[in-house]
Design brief:
single chain, eight-stranded antiparallel beta sheet, mainly beta, ten-stranded mixed beta sheet
């Protein structure tokens, strides 16, 4: 007996539109962040990359806020270290930390095969040491928390759990730049070629810009404010699975910080061609 998940149904629905295509993008998901909509997003608490912050739920400590028509995802330094319930993929608990942050995913809410994902966002500064904000996609069968469906059993970065980074800023590098591109699967769990499929692009981080990725034939095309800035030639077909979106802000090193860091998101949308 086979189990037909909602993801499979979504795939069939998306595949059925491929016969007739045009150059016109149609919006099938848009969140303007007038409020936090749990039908679109859920919090994700997980410890990855040896990050120094703990992801907390429900906007605790102001780490996730929707106000004045935008979403704010933050890293906040609190008064003292506190225990963290974030676990890595092997079940190891994150050490106590004085940093907390927000991370939301559209997993099991809004997942799409190919198309075009765009977010309009900005940071609270042009970059500071240890900053690690990101806007990215992950395959919907990823086996990391929260595991909510039977088919969520594929480890990163295999097909079904592939990663595409639309916008990522590593604050220990140059200011006013972002990294964009795909993570290459080497056919084994927990192995990725981080740099050969990604590149750094100049931008003004503390001003709003639109960051997007789209599937153009077999290519992945990355754009800044609607203008192509990078392309992964022939890589698009390696991501046939439904993918969900992630917005998170991490602290990646022990460099000190004061107050809070903010990634402000005006809107997120997904489009398809019909």
């Amino acid at each position: 007996m086979s189990i037909l998940s909602c993801k499979t149904k979504e795939k069939e629905k998306q595949d059925s539109t491929k016969e007739v295509t045009s150059d016109v993008w149609k919006v099938d998901f848009l969140d303007n962040f007038d409020t936090f909509n749990p039908e679109n997003w859920q919090d994700q608490r997980i410890w990855v990359n040896n990050e120094k912050q703990s992801y907390v739920p429900n906007g605790e400590f102001g780490t996730r806020e929707v106000s004045n028509g935008s979403l704010k995802i933050k890293v906040v330094k609190i008064d003292e270290k506190r225990s963290s319930d974030n676990l890595d993929k092997f079940g190891k608990q994150q050490p106590d930390t004085e940093y907390v942050a927000g991370r939301i995913v559209s997993k099991n809410r809004k997942e799409f095969i190919k198309g075009k994902w765009t977010a309009k966002l900005k940071l609270s500064s042009s970059g500071e040491a240890s900053m690690f904000p990101a806007w990215w996609l992950l395959g919907a069968q990823n086996n990391e928390s929260p595991v909510q469906e039977e088919d969520e059993n594929i480890c990163w970065p295999l097909t079904g759990s592939g990663e595409i980074d639309i916008f990522e800023h590593h604050g220990d590098g140059d200011k006013d730049h972002f990294t964009t591109g795909a993570i290459k699967s080497l056919g084994e769990c927990d192995k990725g070629d981080w740099w050969s499929l990604r590149t750094n692009i100049k931008t003004t981080l503390n001003e709003y810009h639109e960051y997007s990725v789209e599937w153009e034939g077999s290519d992945l095309v990355y754009s800044l404010d609607g203008k192509e800035v990078y392309r992964n030639v022939g890589e698009g077909d390696k991501y046939p699975e439904p993918m969900f979106a992630i917005l998170n802000f991490a602290k990646i090193t022990d460099s000190p910080m004061k107050g809070e860091w903010v990634m402000e998101v005006d809107w997120v949308k997904h489009e398809y061609r019909k």
